[in-house]
C-alpha cells in the first residue's frame, strides 16, 4: 500500500507520537520530526544515513515564532525574515538553550525558516512544536520534489508522505548566516542573490563547498544521481568523447539533435530560470532511471537561479 496520503490529521498524530513524516515544502520534500524528541531526531539521521555533524534546519510557522527559539535577531535578519518568509530562505542565528544540541550539531547557532506551502504551514500551526526537516532523501542522493520520489526512497522506513503536489521552487533554500551582524550566504538556493541584495545590499558569498572547476577532485559530491554526470559549456565536445555509449542530456537550450543521444530532457523552452529550477531534480531522477552510461548537463547562465542550479549540478558530478 502507498504511504502517500493527503490526511493532515494523520500527519499531526504521527509527528505528535515522535514518528517521522515526509512533508511538502516549496523547495523540496522534507523528512520531518519533532525537534524536542530525541527519538524522532535520531530517526531522521538514521533514516537518511546523515552524519550527526551535519545540522538540521528548524521549520517554524511564522516570523513571530522566531523569538521562541533564537536568542537575538540582527537587524538585517529581521529585514530578510519580513521580506522572504514564508519562503525559501534559511537564517542561521544564535540559538536559545531550549534547542537541542542534536539539531545544531553542538553549535551555538540554529538554522531556521518558515516554509511556503499551505499544507505544511497548516500543519506547523497545529503542532505545539517546530519540526526539523532535512530533504527526504538518503544522504548524498537526489533531493525529492514529488511525493513519489520520497516513496521510492523510504517506503519501508517511514509511515507517511504528506502529499502536497510537486515542489514549486524545486531546489533547497538559500542559507544565510551572520558575522558581526552582517549577512553572508552559506549556501546558494531558491532565493536569488539579486533578490537578497535588493533587501540588505551587497552580500558576501561563502558557499562552503564552492570549488573551482580547476579542482574537480575536491568537489563535494551531493545531490547526485547514481549515473556518472558531467557539467559542461561545450556539449558537442563531451558528446564526441562518449560516442558509442548510452548518453543522456540535461539541457537549458533545446538545440541538439544528434543520433548519439539516447535520452534528453530540456529544463525550459523559453530560458525561464525559475522553471528550470523547479524541474531540475525531477529531471535528474528521470535521467537516472534510463540506464545511461553518462548524463551530460549543460551549464546554465551564471546569474539569478542559474547560479544555484549550476552549484547543484556541479555537486552532482564526480
Ligand atoms: P538540508 O540538508 O537541506 O536540510 O540543509 C541543512 C544545511 O544547513 C546543513 O548542511 C548546513 O550546511 C546548514 N546548517 C544548518 N544548521 C546550521 C548552523 N547552525 N550553522 C551553519 N550551517 C547550518
Ligand atoms: Mg539535503
CATH class category of the largest domain = Alpha Beta
Strand/helix succession: EHEEHEHEHEHEHEEEHEEHEEHEH
The coarse silhouette is: globular
Number of domain modules: 2
Measured by DSSP, the beta-strand proportion falls in 15-25%
Number of helices: 10
CATH topology of the largest domain: DHBP synthase
Cα-to-Cα separation, first versus last residue: 36 Å
Rg on CA atoms, Å:
20 Å
Q: What oligomeric assembly is this protein in? A: single chain
CATH superfamily of the largest domain: DHBP synthase
The count of DSSP E runs of length 2 or more, i.e. the number of strands, is 15
Overall mean confidence score, pLDDT: 94
Biggest sheet features: 9 strands, mixed
- Share of helical residues: 25-40%
Summarize, please.
This protein has 318 residues and is an alpha/beta fold. 30% of the residues lie in helices and 19% in strands. The protein is built from ten helices and 15 strands.
Would you kindly provide a written description of the structure presented here, covering whatever features stand out?
The protein is of the alpha/beta class and 318 residues long. Helices cover 30% and strands 19% of the residues. It has helices spanning 8-16, 38-48, 75-84, 101-104, 118-126, 147-154, 193-200, 235-241, 273-288, 305-316, and strands spanning 4-5, 21-23, 30-34, 57-59, 89-94, 109-113, 131-132, 161-162, 174-179, 182-187, 204-205, 229-232, 247-251, 261-266, 294-298. The strands form three sheets. Strands 2-3-7-4-6-5-9-10-11 form a nine-stranded mixed β-sheet, sandwiched between helices. A four-stranded parallel β-sheet has the order 12-15-13-14, sandwiched between helices. A two-stranded parallel ribbon has the order 1-8. It is globular, with a radius of gyration of 20 Å.
Amino acid at each position: 500500500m502507498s504511504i502517500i496520503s493527503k490526511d493532515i490529521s494523520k500527519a499531526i498524530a504521527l509527528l505528535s507520537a515522535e514518528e517521522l513524516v515526509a512533508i511538502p515544502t516549496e523547495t523540496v520534500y522534507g523528512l520531518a520530526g519533532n525537534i524536542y524528541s530525541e527519538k524522532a531526531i535520531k530517526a531522521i539521521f538514521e533514516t537518511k544515513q546523515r552524519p550527526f555533524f551535519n545540522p538540521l534546519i528548524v521549520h517554524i510557522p511564522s516570523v513571530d515564532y522566531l523569538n521562541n527559539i533564537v536568542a537575538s535577531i540582527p537587524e538585517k535578519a529581521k529585514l530578510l525574515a519580513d521580506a522572504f518568509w514564508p519562503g525559501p530562505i534559511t537564517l542561521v542565528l544564535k540559538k536559545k538553550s531550549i534547542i537541542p544540541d542534536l539539531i545544531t550539531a553542538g553549535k551555538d547557532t540554529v538554522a531556521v525558516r518558515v516554509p511556503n506551502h499551505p499544507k505544511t504551514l497548516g500543519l506547523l500551526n497545529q503542532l505545539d512544536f517546530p519540526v526539523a526537516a532535512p530533504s527526504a532523501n538518503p544522504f548524498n542522493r537526489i533531493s525529492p520534489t514529488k511525493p513519489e520520489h520520497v516513496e521510492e526512497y523510504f517506503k519501508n522506513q517511514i509511515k507517511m508522505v504528506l502529499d502536497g503536489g510537486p515542489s514549486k521552487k524545486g531546489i533547497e533554500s538559500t542559507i544565510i548566516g551572520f558575522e558581526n551582524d552582517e549577512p553572508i550566504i552559506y549556501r546558494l538556493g531558491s532565493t536569488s542573490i539579486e533578490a537578497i541584495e535588493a533587501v540588505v545590499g551587497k552580500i558576501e558569498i561563502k558557499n562552503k563547498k564552492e570549488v573551482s572547476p580547476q579542482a574537480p577532485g575536491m568537489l563535494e559530491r551531493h545531490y547526485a544521481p547514481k549515473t556518472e554526470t558531467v557539467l559542461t559549456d561545450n556539449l558537442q565536445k563531451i558528446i564526441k568523447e562518449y560516442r558509442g555509449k548510452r548518453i543522456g542530456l540535461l539541457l537549458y537550450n533545446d538545440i541538439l539533435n544528434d543520433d548519439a543521444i539516447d535520452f534528453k530532457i530540456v529544463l525550459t523552452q523559453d530560458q525561464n530560470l525559475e522553471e528550470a529550477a523547479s524541474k531540475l531534480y525531477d529531471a535528474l531522477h528521470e535521467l537516472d532511471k534510463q540506464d545511461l552510461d553518462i548524463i551530460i548537463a549543460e551549464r546554465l547562465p551564471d546569474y539569478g537561479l542559474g547560479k544555484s542550479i549550476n552549484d547543484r549540478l556541479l555537486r552532482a558530478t564526480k
